[in-house]
Amino acid sequence: EEEMTYQLIIPYIRSFRKLNPDGVAEYTLTADKKSVRRVFFCPSSSNEAIRWMPPVISLDACHTKEGCTSMIYAFTCLTGAGKIYTLAFGIAEGNECTEDWTWMMTHFKEGMPALGEPTLQQSEIPTADDFRDNPAPVLKYRDVVFISDRDKGLLKSLRDIFPNHLSTYCL
After folding, report:
1. Is 15 exposed, middle or buried (0-12, 13-18, 19+ CB in 10 A)?
2. How many CB atoms neighbour CB 122 within 10 A?
3. pTM score, two decimals?
4. Which of 6, 32, 61, 158 is 20 to 30 A from 77 via CA?
5. Pairing relation of β-strands 24-29 and 70-78?
6. Cα-based angle 91, 166, 96 (whole degrees, multiple of 5)
7. DSSP notation for the chain
8. Are strands 145-148 and 166-169 parallel, antiparallel or unpaired?
9. 80-101 burial, b if ≥16 CB within 10 A, otherwise e?
């Protein structure tokens, strides 16, 4: 039943890509090409939303449900109102590992060009005058801090894909 459910995701990915051309929706198949190995979604709205969120992104993965061998990978942040906002998510078979985190992070970076390379030049930082003239100045890139549990390959993947951003962890 689980295998059949995941097969229905490919038409959904195609629809997502058509309706959300600036977003990212990717998948890979198993070696025998008979089932989906992993999927990833990052809607284009997340790239715009991150410009207005506190600059902390949480990364985590958990098992889908008892008896299944899949993991859900989540990329989240908090809104100004303290609500959890999902920027992107993925699902992969098996347990958390460096290979899957690297694949997910690569697509996350692709879907979030606002993250770019950190550290704005002093002349690019919005001033009070910028906000008075334009209540929504757009930052070219966004410095962020990634917070995670450093579990099973996540830290290595984070350093490889986002080497210039800060990261910290919780215990």
Report:
1. exposed
2. 5
3. 0.80
4. 6
5. unpaired
6. 25
7. -HHHHHHTHHHHHHHHHHH-TTSEEEEEE-TTSSSEEEEEEE-HHHHHHGGGS-SEEEEEEEESSTT--EEEEEEEEE-TTS-EEEEEEEEEESS--HHHHHHHHHHHHHH-TTTSS----GGGS--HHHHHH-SSPPPSS---EEEE---TTHHHHHHHHSTTSEEEE--
8. parallel
9. eeeeebebbbbbbbeebbeebb
Range in 55-59, 68-72, 114-118, 160-164 with the lowest mean pLDDT: 114-118
- Look up residue 116 and give its two tokens: 């770019």
Amino acid at 152: K
pLDDT one-digit tens code per residue, 116-169: 754 445 455 555 565 556 555 444 555 788 888 877 788 888 888 888 777 776
